[in-house]
Amino acid sequence: MASLRELGEFEVLRRLQRARRADAAAEPDVVVGAGDDAAVLRPGAGADIVVTTDAFVEGRHFLPAWSAPAATGARLAHANLSDLAAMAATPRWALLSIGARPDTDADELVALQSGLAAALATEGAAVVGGNLAAVEGAQWYSLTLVGETPRGRAWTRYGARPGDLLAVSGRPGRAGAGLALARALGEGARAPEWQPLLEAWLAPHAHVALARALRGTGAVTAAIDISDGFAGDLAHLCEASGTGAEVEEAAWPDDPLLVRAAERLGVPLATLRCGPSDDYELLLAVEPGGRADCEAAARAAGVPLAFVGRFTGAPGVLGLAGRDGIMRPLPGAGFDHFDAR
Q1: CATH number of 165-329: 3.30.530.80, 3.30.1380.10, 3.40.640.10, 3.90.650.10?
Q2: Model pTM?
Q3: Which of 9, 81, 280, 338 is buried most, with the most CB atoms less than 10 Å from its CB?
Q4: Tens digits of residue pLDDT in 242-252
Q5: How far lies 322's CA from each of 104, 174, 283, in Å?
Q6: How many CB atoms lie within 10 A of CB 295?
Q7: Which ranges in the chain are annotated with CATH 3.90.650.10?
């Protein structure tokens, strides 16, 4: 074990690049990979390039006491993979930039990159380059991920229409509940009863395969990933599409564990389900006639898909129809990096 200060920048880069070259060597479309001034990549014929980037800052996006470096790297990979899933894109190449304190153990960075690379490899993507910088204070890791879609076939936030159905994958709110329990209970949140919620927060999985299957139905008119929270990201999609939305409380699948978490935390269930979270689930606008095809595609992909409402012609108006039949404003807002609360 040696710190970055002890090894020096170029030795640390050599260690990171050694693994990057091995990952990229198996990719026939990587003409020049890690170790040069820039990577040279060869996209497929008839493809559109889709690019996303995300950063994790220590203390804000990951808590070292709760996540080992390899797990943090995997989670960063899935944050970016989820953005590509929301565009129905196939992941291909990644660039990893690291801002690390000089006293950091170099093996931690190698482990972080290994966890990230392994997560990307499950979806056919490889790390082809990056950057290393010294920082004071909080460390950060930034990933840029490049993918492809068949030309003109990328999903966007702009296509939802009044009358389209509103569908969501997975169990929104679980990741946010895991984080809230960790903050509220400390080590008590590691109890077996809360383990699925902690895993939803610490070890999420982006739905790239589900997106690929749903793209094949031709029924999805708009999409967004809900890493910032169901209500906030639904608002973004509605703003882009010029629509509103009505969500039906009774249409949500039962989630007894989320109910117990809400009771333990003393908050309404809708606050966890709709508020800021880190779920990496997909929120979709679906043509009504395509519902059955989408449900079949989700079953084949092994991912829960629930139809929980519909889009309306009232731009920006988001409502929640309660089990009592009364329509109320949809609770919750998206995650805000600059909200001091």
Answers
A1: 3.90.650.10
A2: 0.89
A3: 81
A4: 999 999 999 99
A5: 51, 21, 20
A6: 16
A7: 165-329
